[in-house]
Amino acid sequence: MKRTLVLTAAAVAVFASSALAGGGVTGQYIEARTCDVWTGPCFANADMNLGGKNAVLGWKVDKGTVGAARLDGLGIVAVIAAHDTLGMKQTGAAKAVLLVDERADSAQRAALIELAKSQAGSLLANVVAVQTTKVDLDVCGCEEGGCGKLTAGPARIETRCLSDKHDKICGNESAFFPPLSKGVKARAAMATEHSYSGQGVNARWSDAGRRGAYLGSFETR
Asked: Is residue 137, in this structure, part of any structural domain at all?
C-alpha cells in the first residue's frame, strides 16, 4: 500500500548537508522519455517542444551511503512533467513526484530523496508529492546492455537493445539527448513500455515502442 510522506524542509536540509560526508553511491540507472533520445537531429528539431516533456527516472543503489544512511539495495523513482522538451532549455518549472522504496526507514527515505535531487538537479526542484511503494529495477545481463525493467507503483519502464538494422529511420541516429541524471554511464535503448498512471503531475501517459530510454549505471562521489 502506498503512503504519502510529509518531510519538513529542515529534515531535507540536514540530509542535503550531510550528503557531502557520505562515502559515495553506486548503482543501476534507467530512464525513459516521451520522445526519442536515439534519433537524428532533423527529427529531434521537428519535435522540439511538441513532445518529450514527460519522463520516468529510476535509481537502484548497489552500494553506498548518503550521510549516515546506508542505502544498499534500495531504490527511488522520479516522475517528471516538464514545461519544455526534456534536454532543452526550460522556460518554466517542472513538476515531479518521487516514489521511494517502501523498505527504507525514515533516515533512508530522506537520503534517497537527497540522492535523487542531487542527480537530477533542477528537474526535481519542484517535488509536489512523495510516496512510498515497492521499487524493483532489474537489469538483464545481455551483451548489448540495453535490457531492463522498472516497476514502481504507477510507474513502469521496460527496455530492449536497439538494433542498427531494424530501429534506424533516417540513418543518422545518435544519442541526441544525453541522460537526464548526472554521473551516469548508460546507453540508449528501446522503451517497449513506458507509462505513468498515477497523480501529482497533471499528466498520465503510456508511450511504448519509442527509442527514448537509457539504461546503465550511476556513481556519486
From this structure: yes
Nearest Cα neighbor of 144 from 165, 158, 163 is 163
Is the whole model's pTM more than 0.85, yes or no?
yes
C-alpha cell at 158: 521496460
Cα–Cα distance for residue pair 210/36, rounded to 1 Å = 6
Q: What is the pLDDT of residues 69-119, one digit of tens each?
A: 999 999 999 999 999 999 999 999 999 999 999 999 999 999 999 999 999
95 backbone φψ class: left, alpha, beta (φ>0; ψ -120 to 50): beta
Q: 10 in a domain, yes or no?
A: no
pLDDT tens digits, residue range 147-192?
999 999 999 999 999 987 788 777 677 789 999 999 999 999 999 9
Q: What is the dihedral of CA 84, 89, 92, 98, to 10 degrees?
A: 70
| Residue-range definition of the domain harbouring residue 189 | 27-219
End-to-end CA, the chain: 34
Q: How many domains, the chain?
A: 1
Whole-number Å distance between alpha carbons of 70 and 22? 9
Please say whether the beta carbons of 112 and 101 come within 8 A.
yes
